[in-house]
């Protein structure tokens, strides 16, 4: 379970580590599946939102240490 799948670098390492334990299956669940900066092949099984491009903030997601405390998720216009 992940808040946002962005580049996929961290998640692929976790998946590789978990796969070494020979589980029957590994499923990925994320709040936001962001495709713009993805640089590894990851299949997300469950996502609430899919974002092709852009930057989002709020609800724990920040931009330069700002906006993390917003009560919802917003599209940040840079």
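-> sequence recovered:
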């Amino acid at each position: 379970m992940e808040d946002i799948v962005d580049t996929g670098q961290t998640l692929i390492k976790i998946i590789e580590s978990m796969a070494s334990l020979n589980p029957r299956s590994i499923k990925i669940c994320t709040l936001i599946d962001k495709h713009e900066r993805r640089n590894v092949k990851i299949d997300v099984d469950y996502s609430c939102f899919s974002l092709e491009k852009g930057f989002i903030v709020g609800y724990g997601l920040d931009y330069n240490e700002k906006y993390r405390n917003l009560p919802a998720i917003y599209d940040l216009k840079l």
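The chain has a mean pLDDT of 93.
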